[in-house]
Structures are given as C-alpha cells and as structure tokens.
Amino acid sequence: MLSAVFRSLARVRGAKALHPHGAVLAATVVRHGLRPGTGVGWVDDPGEDRALVRFSRGAGLPAPLPDVLGLALRVESPDGDPWDLLLSTTLGRRLPFPRRDARSGLHSSIAAFAGPRGRLLVGARWVDGRFLLAVATPRGPWRPFAELHVHGRAAVDEPVTFEPVRHAVPGLAVPERWRRLREPAYAGSRRGRRRSGRSG
User: Does the model's pTM come out above 0.90?
Assistant: First the structure.
C-alpha cells in the first residue's frame, strides 16, 4: 500500500513523492573526530570528505511558505562509494517541523540509527557560516564531530537520488522497522518517476 501511494504521488508530480525539487550543491565535510568514540569510524576519526548537499522542501510548497526542509548529504567514501544521510527540520529531535530558512533551527535524522555502541541520532545546525554536524544518543547531548561547508555552486547537471537505506554510512544502520517503511516508499517513488518519464 505504501509503495502504491508513493508511486502515484511521484507519477502525478513527475518528481519524487516527497522533497520533489531541490538544489544540489558541492560541499566539503571537515571532521575533527570525537572522543570518547561512538564506534562509527566516519564520526570518530578526523578527516576531510568531498560531498554533495541537496536542499529541498518536503511537501514542495512554494517559498515563502514554511515547509519541512530537507538537508540530504552524500559523502564520497574512501572507496568512491556514496554514503547518504537525510536530515529534516524538526521541533526537538523527532518531530518534523516546517520552517522558512534552512539556516534556522535543527535538522535531525528523526530516527535513531543502530550504532555499534547504541542508538545515535545525527543532526546539523547552522552556526557562523557553516553547518555543524553532531551525533547524540536519544536522551544525551549533541556532540559536534564535523563541519559541513557548502560551496554555493551547482555540483551536478542531472538529478541525484539520495538513498540512506542503500547507501548507509558504515556503522549507522537504519533500524529494521524504518527499513520496512522506507524501502517500499522509495521503490514506489522510483517507479512513479519512471512511469512519468522523469528521473528527478
């Protein structure tokens, strides 16, 4: 049923069922690391990654109307494979919340990932010209581990589909109950876009 709903919505829109349109920009993730560690190498270890960021509006409402804003991050792994994270503006950590500006408030993964040492949320907040990336246990404080620098120039000419289930960051596993919801939704959205003749 979920697949059919997302397929129909994507077919009508000729785009993704949710976050149908967005701007994809080049970015760099500068990781200073985290101690004590989480068991997730990408979070714990310092380094620098080439990345893409997609800013989008969840329901596709026109600006300046508030909408649940999306920040999709794709990091290029050392092997060249994509690692994807999807964050949305929230009230607190778990409740999707509409905003007008991606630089206001918190972006959160909403669902906690299954990490090697327990559940972890990932968040981003705009501070002094860049996004701070942080992790937190469901009840613990946010712990910044990296800076996300968005370069403000278009990164690609073709649409990019971010899929955190297929392209999970190693150690940040999507919980099974969320996989059961997300996989048919993404599959339905992809089929709907193919039927409409568009891949965006």
Answer: no
